Amino acid sequence: MKIGLDLMGGDFAPEATFEGALQALKELPSEVRLVLIGDEKRLQKMLTGKEADSGQFDFVQADDIIEMGEHPAKAFAAKPKSSISIGFQLLKSGKIDGFSSAGNTGAILVGIHYTIRTLNGIIRPAIATFLPAGEKDLTLLLDAGLNPDSKPDVLYQYAIMGSVYAKSVWGLDNPRIGLLNIGSEESKGNLIARSTYELMKDNTDFNFVGNFEANEFFSNKRADVVVCDGFVGNVILKEAEAFYKLSKQRNFTDPYFERFNFENYGGSPILGASYVVVIGHGISNAKAIKNMILQTRNMVEADLINKIKKAIK
Amino acid sequence: MKIGLDLMGGDFAPEATFEGALQALKELPSEVRLVLIGDEKRLQKMLTGKEADSGQFDFVQADDIIEMGEHPAKAFAAKPKSSISIGFQLLKSGKIDGFSSAGNTGAILVGIHYTIRTLNGIIRPAIATFLPAGEKDLTLLLDAGLNPDSKPDVLYQYAIMGSVYAKSVWGLDNPRIGLLNIGSEESKGNLIARSTYELMKDNTDFNFVGNFEANEFFSNKRADVVVCDGFVGNVILKEAEAFYKLSKQRNFTDPYFERFNFENYGGSPILGASYVVVIGHGISNAKAIKNMILQTRNMVEADLINKIKKAIK
Asked: How are strands ordered across the β-sheet holding A126-133?
């Protein structure tokens, strides 16, 4: 298995990405090879003095970088030698099995649309994210911001993809899928939520457990996967970030707060793309990069893409 | 000034509502009279043994109660002698200046629509709610769940009403109004948010400070009022409830968490109705009821209704 890492992506790249790759190596079995995509000269410099040698990695030279502030579509088109563009070319040609990047999110999404595309039958891909649920578990939330206006048929597909993820990556037998709504009754919510409920309620594609309200997050275990449009999902994610920020500002000492720290999850899987892609936070440190790599490995290992392909008719 | 209180509304009524009224009395100046609406016999029983006498209150007998689980519209029509129905009749006939109830929220909304109506020109009324912002301040968020599908012109009116509230009740000179969105740029968000930004950006009705993201809540002070549709607002409120619940479950000791406790704010003002109406949480205890009454008094004292009337052209 080969996992591509965008060495140049993220606010603290390439130092943090390289450090994250080294940390990931310690946890990965030898059959997993990391493919670092970036400026080989800078990489060689970083190797000096580290307990690492270039033989542990594969390298692919990228002469260019898409910066965080650049216009995604324009930069992607103008910079075919950027680490992001090359990552997608490597994916498409089968030279890597998964690609992870903490770089310009917009450019990564452009890469998905123009280079590898979405799976046949997928109306819209989604960004999935993780929220803590009790002491040990997680809730998979999607879409976390890719499609601010999602129609019921799109939300239905999110549920299928989320269910496949929870089954194949988490190993759950019969994942419970909730529809984010503002009341427990079928008649509650906005037009989209009500129509989506109608679509989901007697389905045989996944285990629908009904409406899920936002006050159930963090402590409740009624749903493993919660689906909503990208506007609402992004609001939920950012409010959880606000809470984590607050805990830092006030030096809250309870270890539960660390469960809100994105670094533990590393990256957000893109579901519905033709290949495994995981997006990291721009401010990713080495730990976040390491976990993003492990996340990517887990998705490849679970054969997630083929399983989603089969589930989407 | 006369403040009507639905003595029978709420899960712990009439004991908690009565206790809350007693607590409010201690903080209210003598020119504010409380009008308790409910079963006088039960009230007399509660008076026994308390350091209170019936002369401190006005009473209006209500023979009936709309229960929490009843169908709002049907119950409101079928029970003209319920405490909620009588509350609205008293408002309309000028016998009370404001009405607060922790009873069946749906029935209260029906009362607004059928008995007192909204102000001329108001497309939709909104429920406003409060979120902590730093150590001392609050953010006024609306709509918190009344209109899950709100169009840009409705959101624009929310901004006007929120601005008037922050000016007249909080005494702010030039309240800053943010549009809840999932990015800071004008082009971000769903269709509704983008069109609303367009409407708001050069307005002269209120001080628009642009998009406001959910990760700015709790610690940031960039906006005094944040507007969004009732679906998103309800999700934000319930996620904040989830944090508070988590803090209780884990015995977090930081006093900041108490700022998430709805009991401190007591009630949610309805903005856009023709009279001052404040809705309390069903699980309100005496403290919450007291604060709901004080909230109602503040809105009457600020002459909020006339100020909103003037601001809506």
From this structure: A57-61, A33-38, A2-6, A98-101, A276-280, A267-271, A126-133, A137-142, A225-227, A176-180, A207-212
* Token reading at A27: 């946890």
Q: Are A207 and A177 a contacting pair, CB within 8 Å? A: yes
Cβ distance B228 to B129 under 8 Å?
A: no
| Model confidence band, residue B236 (pLDDT cutoffs 50, 70, 90) | very high
Strand A267-271, strand A126-133: pairing: antiparallel
Asked if B238's CB is within 8 angstroms of A182's CB, the reply is yes
CA A127 remoteness from chain centre: 6
Q: Does A236 touch chain B (CB under 8 A)?
A: yes
What residues contact B287, with CB distance under 8 A and at least 6 apart?
A: B20, B23, B263, B264, B266
Handedness of CA B265, B144, A180, A131 (dihedral sign): negative
Whole-structure pTM over 0.90, yes or no?
yes
What residues are paired with B233 via a beta bridge?
A: none
Nearest CA in chain A to B188: A148
Tell me which residue in A145, A191, A254 faces B252 most closely, judged by beta carbons.
A254
- Among residues B70, B71, B4, the alpha carbon closest in space to that of B38 is found at B4
pLDDT digits (tens, 9 = 90+) for B11-59: 999 999 999 999 999 999 999 999 999 999 998 888 887 767 778 899 9
Each residue of B245-274: pLDDT tens digit? 888 888 877 788 888 888 888 899 999 999
Measured between beta carbons, which residues in chain A are less than 8 angstroms from residue B218?
A: 242-243, 245-246
Q: Report the amino acid identity of residue A16.
A: A
Cα separation, B75 vs B73, whole angstroms: 6
CA A286, A147, A157, A232 torsion: positive or negative?
positive
Q: Which residue on chain A is closest to B151 by alpha carbon?
A: A190
Q: Mutate which of A192, A239, A244 to disrupt the B interface (most B C-beta within 10 Å)? A: A239
